[in-house]
Amino acid sequence: MRAFAVPAISLQFARYAGVGAVATAIHYALLIALVESGGAAPLPAALAGYVAGGLVSYALNRRLTFAGGRPHREAAWRFALVAAGGFAWTGLLMALFASRLGVPYLPAQAAATLAVLVWGFLANRLWSFAQPAL
Fold first, then answer.
1. Model pTM?
2. For residues 103-134, b (16+ Cβ closer than 10 Å) or e, as one string?
3. CA distances from 12 to 20, 58, 93, 98 (A)
4. Residue 64 near residue 93 (C-beta atoms within 8 A)
5. Domain ranges of the chain
């Protein structure tokens, strides 16, 4: 009996999602700490959490998910641009859901996180970390 072969992209996405879970935990911890302490409103707290999670995400994705791709000097700025896009999407979705529609901040952030997940994986896989064509 042949073992079921999992496509390489599926394994890579699983690693990306695992790294994303770690980065998201840091993001949400900072978000909750800032909001619940009264230190920040949900929107700026969400964006501060996004930046903290993004730094962890780059380091772990470079090492675990996309190893052997572009050199750091190229991958870092590309990752930063993709993260900036995710940052903008996070801000827009949090403004829409939490600020405009009155959705509680944690469900609003969960929706934003899911919306950015697949887009970020594809952009990073195909552009940020992809091995440059010779």
1. 0.74
2. bebeebbebbbeebbeebbebbbeebbeeeee
3. 12, 15, 27, 32
4. no
5. 14-128
With 60 as the cut, is the pLDDT of residue 121 above it? yes
Specify the length of the chain in residues. 134
Q: Among residues of the chain, what percentage have pLDDT more than 70? A: 93
Q: Assess contact for 87 and 54: CB atoms under 8 A.
A: yes
Mind listing the pLDDT tens digit for each residue in 36-61? 999 999 989 988 998 899 999 999 99
- Please report, in angstroms and rounded to a whole number, the separation of the first and last CA atoms in the chain: 40
Q: Both tokens of residue 6?
A: 């999992």
In this structure, the dihedral spanned by the alpha carbons of residues 57, 89, 50 and 21, taken in order and rounded to 10 degrees, is -50
